[in-house]
Amino acid sequence: MRKALVLVAALIVVFVAGWLIDDKILGGDIPRNVSIGGVEIGGSSIDDATARLEQAGFAQREVQLTWSGLSVTRTAEDLGVSVAYHDALAQAADRGGLISQPFSWFGSLFSSTSHDVEYELDADVLASYFGVGDDAVFPLDFGRPTIELVDGAFVEVDAQSVSTVDAETLQQAVLAAASDENAEAEIEVPVAGETAVDRGADEIIAKATEMTEGGIQVRLKGQFEIISIPETAVRSWIRFGGTRENPTIELDAELVQSTIETLYIGIEEKGEDAQFRISITGEVLIVGGAPGSVCCDPAIVDAIHEALVDGEELVEVWPIEDPDAHGVAWAESLGVTELIGEFTTYYKPGQTRVTNIHRISELTQGALIHPEETFSINEYVGRRTRDNGFVDAGVISNGVFETSVGGGISQYATTLFNAAFFAGLDFGEYQSHSIYISRYPYGREATVSFRHPDLQIVNTTPYTVLLWPTVTADSITVSLYSTRYVTGEQTGQTEGREGASCTRVETERTRTYEDGRVEVDYVTARYRPEGVACNGTSTRSTTTTSTSVPPSTSLP
Q1: Which of 185, 419, 430, 541 has the smallest number of Cβ neighbours within 10 A?
Q2: Domain end among 295, 326, 357
């Protein structure tokens, strides 16, 4: 009996000693064989257990949402799911009373204890996926409403509806997908029904209707007559803009302006452009330039809009100077102040070709070439016809002297070409006569015919160039006026054979700019014998006979 008692006592001592050593001395805050949500934390401290649980990523399972043709994949945490394990951790660390602790410890040696984590969902986070604007994954915004005038009333013509989300069912599905590995992780967002989208159309329609009700009255400044514009007309001016959050009511400025101009069309007095004249001493004069008066100031659009917003019934409109009329100030701004280039060529008085030279000089006197513009003889003058004052005279056609309406104006072209050459201007299209004519500078001349060849002068200066041809009984002078920016001079000339019969002449020009820059460029000419092509073949007609024009006959 005594031995039995000793044995029992020894076992109790061993039991208690084992408990004290393993659980109290060597053990952690949490007993052996304890897990939370499947994460083993037995024998660890609270801090270590917390770290293990945080690393477990309970809410990191990926969930796919599909709705309205869009599909996104996010973690459960992204969708608002969070995991609470602190209660489970407290339960796991609870050993009970001192008497029961040894027995609990002993039981843990042969069995395990598991505690569950708690999954929670922030409904606002999940709802944020379905909203208005660019931040929403599943946008519900259909933009601002389209409002039109129908039978005199403003109407929303594109009312929209949208499927509404069954929020409660969706929340349950997301929680299930996050907490249960066996649950479906691909969720078709449940729909509760359809609802109309309120895009603020009613409010903006009410405001526009109130603004335009009864129309508006206008009166021209300085007059007593009042003109009523009905509300249907005023409503036709309304244009809706802005965004759904900040809608705007504007006026169609062009339509308002045209309406007011139609009401007061009789008051218009077109202005006149200022013109340039060159005195006999070569001084640049500016003459004319009447401002005129037209209806109405574009600011009237804002004035009418303000009146409609403020509920005013009468608006005063006012005329302005003709915006299409260029007055003295405009002319002065062009920089046409001095002679920048001039050239003179001579002809025998009384020839029929002289009539054409005088006529084209008359038509182009006063032409302006603005900066970056190109002056084209053919575009500016058009086809030379008898109705336009031109007569028959000599021309060169395909290397043969003939007669045609407008013959002789190539002398005008050559004179203009040289004036532009020395003024330092650029050239677009140009072509020399095919046969050299001794009254022109060798290699430095041009011919024209409609539509080609053409002579084009390009103004690459910052100032406008005034074209001013003048004629006498035996000469034509083309003068160019502007602000001196560059000058040109001939600094060289070379020629060479081209083909079997032609001569190619290359004339060097040195241009000196007012800022000291110097540039070199070249103009070219190509000459051939009368009636012979560059390859040596004849260009004369096989059915008619042509003879060289005698020196005294009218030439181009």
Answers
A1: 541
A2: 326
